[in-house]
Design goal:
The chain is an alpha+beta fold. The protein has one domain: 3-Layer(aba) Sandwich (Aminopeptidase), CATH 3.40.630.30. Helix content is 32%, strand content 35%. It contains 5 helices and 7 strands, in the order E-H-H-H-E-E-E-H-E-H-E-E. Strands 1-2-3-4-5-7-6 form a 7-stranded mixed β-sheet. Helix 4 links the parallel strand 4 and strand 5. The two termini are 26 Å apart. The structure holds coenzyme A. The site of coenzyme A has 22 residues, from helix 1, strand 4, helix 4 and helix 5. Coenzyme A binds next to helix 1, strand 4, helix 4 and helix 5.
Length: 159
């Protein structure tokens, strides 16, 4: 697996991976109406361009196949882990763990004291495994569907 920064030419592949992750992996925790609201098909690339612009985004790529995107993480320099998604074809192989590890290392270098995220029902056990704890449960509405999520935090040691 190779981890590299996002560039504009990755836009469609990232939006598609997100869509595949929701309609593939999230099928265990979200019904069809929720999945459609969370990840409309096809993805709107204009929305995605604006969504990714303020973020640092790292991609995990198959080392053997440069077209094979395995996952991505999007974060902000204040410690916010905003987007964390793995392709259904690459789930439970440590892709998200490696991506988060890279983002965490970069944020430590910047002197960030705490990571924070809003984890989905699927993200919660993943982030817990990475040392995050739940601060509060939240209920949000997105495109007419209701979602339960968890505000989670992880304190970082000084570099
Ligand atoms: C959550 C997600 C990013 C995890 O990606 P991943 O690459 O499969 O995660 P990893 O392989 O690095 O998992 C590391 C550990 O996290 C935990 N974990 C990951 N996915 C899990 C799941 N679905 N259920 C329970 N624990 C899970 C496990 O402890 C796992 O270790 P193990 O496989 O040895 O048991 C991925 O399932 C995903 O994209 N889900 C759909 C979208 C989503 O909800 N994203 C999170 C938004 S906050």
């Amino acid at each position: 697996m190779r981890i590299r920064p996002y560039s504009d030419k990755d836009l469609a592949a990232v939006a598609q991976l997100f869509t595949d992750a929701i309609h593939g992996l999230a099928v265990t925790h979200y019904d069809e109406a929720q999945r459609k609201a969370w990840a409309p098909q096809p993805p709107d690339l204009g929305i995605w361009e604006r969504r990714l612009k303020p973020l640092k985004v790292l991609l995990a790529q198959d080392a053997q196949n440069s077209d094979g995107l395995l996952g991505f993480v999007g974060y902000e320099e204040d410690g916010h882990i905003d987007l964390m998604f793995t392709s259904p074809l690459a789930a439970r192989r440590g892709v998200a763990s490696q991506l988060l590890g890279r983002a965490e290392a970069a944020l430590r270098e910047l002197g960030v004291a705490q990571l924070y995220t809003e984890a989905s029902l699927l993200g919660q056990p993943f982030f817990a495994r990475q040392g995050f704890t739940v601060k509060e449960e939240q209920h949000i509405e997105l495109r007419g569907a209701q979602f339960r999520r968890f505000a989670m935090v992880k304190a970082l040691d000084k570099p």
